[in-house]
Structures are given as C-alpha cells and as structure tokens.
Amino acid sequence: MDFLPVFPDLDGASVFITGGGSGIGASLTEAFLRQGSKVAFVQRSDATAFCDEMERKTGRRPLFLPCDITDIEALKAAIGQAAAAHGTVTVLVNNAANDQRHATLDVTEDYWNWSMAINLKAYFFAMQAVIPGMKAAGGGSIINFSSISYMMGNAGYAIYTSANSAINGMTRSLAREFGPDRIRINALAPGWVLTQKQKDMWVTPEGLSAHLDRQCLKETIEPEDIAGGCLFLASRASRMMTGQALVIDGGVVVTG
Prior knowledge:
Elements: E1 14-18, H1 23-34, E2 38-43, H2 48-58, E3 63-66, H3 72-86, E4 91-94, H4 109-137, E5 140-145, H5 149-152, H6 158-178, E6 183-190, H7 196-201, H8 205-214, H9 224-234, E7 245-248
Parallel strand pairs: 1-2, 1-4, 2-3, 4-5, 5-6, 6-7
C-alpha cells in the first residue's frame, strides 16, 4: 500500500468498518491504520489472526468486535463499544455485503429478507447509530459500498443488485438530510475486485477475460485498489463532496 497518499486529518480519526477483516474490508482496515486512524470493525468470523497481522505490519491494532450485522441491536452495541474505545465515530464505512447468486424463481420471502438485511438494512441502521455522535462532533463522513453490478444489469443475483441500487438512493436522501450538520454521505461502487472469495467462488478464466475486455484498463482490480478512493471520501480532501457515487471499476460502466 505504499502507493496510497497520506491524509493528515485521518490521523487519530475514529473509524468503524463493517466486514473489516476480510476481502476489500481487510484492505480498508489496513489503509486506515496506516493513516494513523483508530479502527474498529465487525464481522461474524474470528479475526484475531488478522488483527495480529495488522499489528505486525502497521504497528497499530484494530479493535475487532464479533457481530452479525443482521442483528441490529448487536450492530448498534458494537458501534457504541467502538465509540467508547476510540472516541465518537466520525468515519463509518458500510462495506459488508453478500453477493450470493440466486435464481429469481427460487427466491423465498425468508431469503429475500435475509439478503436485504445484510445488503441494505444494516447500512441504514449503522448510519442511524453514528449520526447523533457525528452531529455532536460537528460532522463526519459515511461511505456506503455499492457495486457496478446494478449499473451493468447483471443477472443471477437480483436481490443483491436491487440493494446496490437502493444504497445509492438512500445515500442521496441522507446526504441531503444531514448535510446541514456537516455529515457527508457518499457511495463507492467497485467493479469486479478479485478478493479470495471471488476467486474461490466465481472467477473463471473465460469470465475474467470477458470482463477485462470491457474494462478500459486491462488489469485486474485488487482489494487495495479500492482503498485510496475510500480514504479520499473519508478525508477532508473531499469536504465538498456528498451524495455522490464514486466508481472504481477499471472503466467498465463508461463503456457500457
């Protein structure tokens, strides 16, 4: 991550990340730690080994709070714990998501509710939990991860793409509502990032080749490629940017 710029205002900032111990989230945690931020993150699986690794690599240890983000009361409690440990959360990164593939005609109401709980509902209630503190602190930054999947009209995971699209609408509405409180709320839409999960479950040579053909930049996107945009949105370098969707996809959606 030597290529990332330094944003001095993130030094000492209290940052809360959902799903911050694996995939893109792990790169975000590392990037904020390297800025000097105080990072807390939640995920379901044990992240002790990851925290050990981050302490070795950055000299700073993130605060891991085990949590299923679909349990809203547990999510709110984790945010409270992070604020107690690091001070008022002034940067929230709603990153955790699940892009599980599904056939539309097989979807049950329970499956719909489960997917929306992860991919949309948790975002809203995480924001609701941090906004009062941000207002009292004089402002803050919220970054809601979406995806270019809904822009491309991809089939095979309609609930996920529906949530992606809804995240943008929610981001815009809340940016308008809380702009007077100096709370900035933006979306970040990655392209196909080659996390280990993607490699294990979805990447095929043919599929990857076809996707690279659609990218203007003919390189695969790695998790650390997303970190710079997230840091920018979190910092005061983007202080007059809100209600926007920043796309980091190698140039897919500009070409159709």
